[in-house]
Structure formats: structure tokens, C-alpha cells
Amino acid sequence: MKKSICWAAACCLLVACNNPGAGTASTDTTKAATPAAPATPPPTEFADAHYSDLQKKAMAALSSGDVAGFVDQFADNAVFIWSSGDSLAGKEAIAKYWTDRRGKAIDSLAFVNDIWLPVKVNQPQKGPDWPGVWVLGWTEVHVKYKNGVKLGFWVHSDAHYNASDKVDRYIQYIDRAPINKAFPAKK
Asked: Both ends of the chain: CA-CA distance in Å?
């Protein structure tokens, strides 16, 4: 009798394991028949890390005195804006400014402890955020001017890339007071 009960239990177990629908009630019959709706991208997401590499390369060029290498990142219609409200319009104006600044005022320039965050803005919120790829950067700057003054400070920058992977808007947030103090007005 024990053998019969064991044999019957084993058969029940085998049948139960081979019946995938047994014991479950599926009420979602449209799940397989309805294709999934396309996912809406989030308002902002991380962008490809190569954009950070582009900024690192540009800053290394400026640090080494290669102004042409720094300016190469800009589109012809780029705008360079400082937090003070000053700005430069066009790649040619940006090149002239940095050529003069690097050649006549700055003796040495180093960017250290840098942090880069590439983001893609899919849906602008308010203000100056354009759709597309932005690279947000925080950099500690050590500069020695040709007049012997040495400064250390932090700079925050935002670079917007156009469809050709060129920077068309560059915003630099910097406290100009120590820089202006290093270059007193001539009387």
C-alpha cells in the first residue's frame, strides 16, 4: 500500500510540474498582443562621456599655451559669456581674446581637481538651458601672471555642443575681483 501511495504522489508531482498554467490565473491576455509604447526620454539625462574628454582636451591645450587647440572646440558662431555679463561673439573674437590674454598677461596656467559632467537636455526647463548636450565643469585654476602675481581660484563652466560636436555657447562663472586686483587700473 505504501508503494501505491508513493507512486501516486510521484505521478501527481510530475503532472503538476509539467503543466505551466496550473494553479495560476492570468487575467492579462493583451500583454503579448499589444506592443510597448515608446519610452518618453527624461527631461535631462547623462550624455556620452566623450564630451567630458573634449573639454579636458581643450583645457589641456589652453594650459599648455596652445590657444589654437583650445579655440578649435568652438563653432564659428560661438558665444563666450562670463558671469559678469561680458561676452565674446564668434570664434574669431574668442581666438583673439585668448591669444592676447595667454600671450600678454598669463605666464603659466594650470587646471587641477577638475570635475566634468556631460548631460543631455531633452526638454528645456526655464532660462538659458537649450536642448542638446551640455558639459558642466568645475575646475581649480592656478595662474601666474607676467607681472608676478599668482592666483588660485575655482571656475565653473558650461559648454553647449551643437549637432556638429562644436561648442556654440560657453558660459564661465568666475569671481573677477581677485583678477582685477592683480591688474590695477593704470593712471
From this structure: 117
Q: What confidence tens digit (pLDDT) does each residue in 143-172 have? A: 999 999 999 999 999 999 999 999 999 999
| Mean pLDDT rounded to a whole number for the chain | 86
Which grid coordinates are listed for 65?
A: 599655451
The per-residue pLDDT for 127 is 67
Delineate the domains of the chain, giving CATH numbers in brackets: 44-182 (3.10.450.50)
DSSP secondary structure of the chain: -HHHHHHHHHHHHHHHHT-TTTT------STTTSPPPPPPPPSEEE--THHHHHHHHHHHHHHHT-HHHHHTTEEEEEEEEETTS-EEESHHHHHHHHHHIIIIIEEEEEEEEEEEEEEEESS--STT--SEEEEEEEEEEEEEETTS-EEEEEEEEEEEE-TTS-EEEEEEE---HHHHHHSPPP-
**Cell 600671450 sits at which residue?**
103
Residue 35 sits at the vertex; the CA angle it makes with 33 and 36, to the nearest 5 degrees, is 135
pTM for this one? 0.75
From residue 149, give the alpha-carbon distance in Å to each of 105, 143, 156.
10, 8, 22
